[in-house]
From TrEMBL:
<keyword id="KW-0413">Isomerase</keyword>
<dbReference type="InterPro" id="IPR002937">
    <property type="entry name" value="Amino_oxidase"/>
</dbReference>
<dbReference type="GO" id="GO:0016491">
    <property type="term" value="F:oxidoreductase activity"/>
</dbReference>
<protein>
    <submittedName>
        <fullName>UDP-galactopyranose mutase</fullName>
        <ecNumber>5.4.99.9</ecNumber>
    </submittedName>
</protein>
<dbReference type="Pfam" id="PF01593">
    <property type="entry name" value="Amino_oxidase"/>
</dbReference>
<feature type="domain" description="Amine oxidase">
    <location>
        <begin position="11"/>
        <end position="431"/>
    </location>
</feature>
<dbReference type="InterPro" id="IPR036188">
    <property type="entry name" value="FAD/NAD-bd_sf"/>
</dbReference>
<dbReference type="GO" id="GO:0008767">
    <property type="term" value="F:UDP-galactopyranose mutase activity"/>
</dbReference>
Amino acid sequence: MRIVVVGGGLGGTAAAARLAKLGHEVTLLEASDRLGGALAPVSQDGFTWDAGPTYTLLPAALRDLFRKSGRPLENELGGDLEPLTVIREHRFADGTSVSLPGGSRAAQIEAFDALDPGLGEAWTKHVDTYAPVWDLLRRNYVEAPWDRKDPGRDLLSLFKTRETLHKRLRRDLRDDRLGLVAAHPTVAEGHDPRNVPAWAAVHLYLEQSFGAWRPPGGMGRIAELLTARLETRRVTVVTGTEATDLVVREGRVVAVATAAGSHDADAVVVAIDPRFLPTLEKHVERTMPAIPPVITHLGLEGPLPELPPELVIHADPLLTIRTGGTAPEGRTAWTLHGRGKLAEDMTDALARHKIDVREQIVTRVDLSPRQQVEQWRGSPMGVLWQGRGTIFDRLGPSTPVPGVYVASAHGAPGAGVPYVAQSAALVAQLIGPA
């Protein structure tokens, strides 16, 4: 089959690599001049920062991608993914803090008990509720394509649950600090817990059970390796070419239109926000993108406080510091994320929390949410949760247009490195071998 993949981020490159390994003739169209999307790093003046995610949950998703498309990931990296001992530190308005370890129930109990005796048990009791949720999702939604018209009794019952994340956290976690930690991954992706189904916080179980993992050299290495994998698999990569719409004849997709002409296709994989393609826009008109945070990449010099890979300061605005960038010798790379009432520069807001680096900035890159969405042809945070019905409103892995599939943060099973990688696996399952 001739397959055209629209978008060169993780979902697009992963789908292209898998489908080419299955024997299909694959062309990938990317609007920008390079592949990688939110995984491609940002560089300036000798500094390099992760543009989007800095780590992944469920490392098996990336390992499966590389194993099913060629050489194993550990062979390509020259070593395995590195586990993070501490996923992130949370600092609260009352001056207390907790460092959240990954991959260990006992370590999380110890961490929360250090915050206040007894909190460890309350935390793990809450996290335990997501174990059966993950088992159901894994078998019927994450590792196998779902049928939104007939998802099965158990999956339908889960997706129809009316309980919101906000309500469950208020019920289970009486200490407000635990609620802030539990809600943070959802809030960091731009969602309001009052509009998010309670089951969607299954990431808490994944963090505790499987931990967080980072490739040596940063997430940009995954983008580099996938770009090389496409060359190995002889995928035709066309950069600087924006898809303008799908061409449908007699009810089935036959090509992808661009300003430079059409690319014939027996099947199309959409790895951008479907709203950018008029043919699909009407099918997602009830959805909205989750807005990315305001981002500032900083190149710093001089002595700095010792911080974990990720520090979350719970205030208004909500501030996150990521310290894992690379820099010239004697210098340091940080990334700031901000959400909430950003009426001032984030470095000024940070200074109010006793972390003042304003005199140490040697370079910076500022990115607004709009710039990010335009650059990546969609939000890396995927579709905004607007209630339990959102799960049925977003597309993927199949679509109502025969021959068209979705593999991106905007489709099933959702945003985040492991889910986007799995979206490509689901599409490959549906299309099958050549």
